[in-house]
Design a protein that fits this description.
- The chain is α+β, with helices and mostly antiparallel strands.
- It has a domain at about 140-275: Aminopeptidase (3-Layer(aba) Sandwich), CATH 3.40.630.
- It has helices at about 5-35, 80-90, 110-115, 155-165, 175-190, 230-245, 260-270, and strands spanning about 45-50, 50-55, 65-70, 100, 120-130, 140-145, 190-200, 200-210, 215-225, 250-255, 270-280.
- An eight-stranded mixed sheet has the order 4-11-5-10-9-8-7-6, sandwiched between helices. Strands 1-2-3 form a three-stranded antiparallel sheet, with helices on one face.
């Protein structure tokens, strides 16, 4: 008969094993972006800057599209000089410096960034869902469709408006360049861009970026305020994950912007595997 000590030791080993598996998955997810080949879509720069890599988009100043990530270890004393170099790169393009990374993989970086003058603006759960754990959540009255390169400019503009949270009345027009960038993304075939509607009215938008090794990043999920709490986000993400699985993908991942989003994703089968943090100047 096993003793309580033996059971405790087994549980401790299982716990360490689970933590190790989650950290390794978090590393795999982060590296799928930070070490990926430079993007080919028009208007996107990928710039190596010492131990960091930066992505800067010419057609939008949206902070989610312009950011840097660590790609190599560095001593904390080296961070300040690296940040000065990054500031110059971002300032040359009239962008605010933002650095994003998985906190558990770079445990000393946050403190070093704060010493360099940046401040923490977000700490969000990094979540993953294996296809064996996926539980779709369709919602009554919600229709989701993927955009295509044959769609009209007006349809692609709706996607951009929702993604960038612009007024739907057109008071902040979407540029032709932004529409062209979406069309080029669709033509490249590495992403699915989708819109959810209710009674024919645009309600939400989101993307799935297909990566190597069966991974897919679910990102830019935005639901218009008047359609929230109606299951739209769950239906949209379910559609995107379904498309990922159809293409042979096995793991979807994302970061939840708040507790409500985290609970929606948890119902679909997502589990937290770390914390995605953002620091800005």
């Amino acid at each position: 008969m096993r003793t309580m000590k033996a059971l405790a030791e087994r549980d401790e080993i299982d716990s360490r094993g689970l933590v190790t598996a989650e950290i390794e998955l978090a590393r795999r997810l982060e590296q799928s972006i930070s070490l990926a080949p430079p993007p080919t879509s028009s208007g996107v720069e990928s710039i190596a800057c010492g131990a960091f890599r930066a992505w800067l988009v010419s057609y939008t100043s949206n902070h989610e599209a312009n950011y840097a990530m660590p790609v190599a270890p560095m001593h904390p004393d080296q961070v300040s000089a690296a940040i000065d170099d990054l500031r110059a790169v971002f300032a040359a393009r009239s962008r605010t410096l933002r650095i994003e990374f998985v906190e558990e993989l770079w445990p000393e970086l946050g403190t070093a960034l704060q010493r360099a003058g940046l401040h923490l603006v977000a700490r969000e759960p990094l979540m993953a869902c294996a296809k064996t754990e996926f539980t779709p959540a369709p919602a009554l009255g919600v229709n989701v469709r993927a955009l295509s390169i044959d769609d009209a400019d007006a349809d692609l503009a709706v996607f951009v408006r929702i993604r960038e949270q612009r007024p739907m009345d057109g008071s902040r027009p979407v540029s032709e360049r932004a529409v062209a960038a979406v069309r080029e993304t669709l033509r490249a075939g590495a992403e699915t861009c989708a819109i959810a509607t209710i009674d024919g009215r645009p309600a939400a938008a989101g993307r799935c970026i297909f990566q190597s090794d069966g991974l897919g990043e679910i990102t830019s999920i935005v639901t218009l305020p008047e359609f929230r709490k109606r299951g739209v986000a769950g239906a949209l993400v379910s559609f995107l994950i379904g498309g990922l699985i159809e293409r042979g993908g096995s793991i979807a991942w994302l970061n939840a912007a708040n507790e409500q989003a985290r609970s929606v994703y948890a119902r679909l089968g997502f589990r937290s595997i770390g914390s995605l943090v953002n620091y800005e100047d």
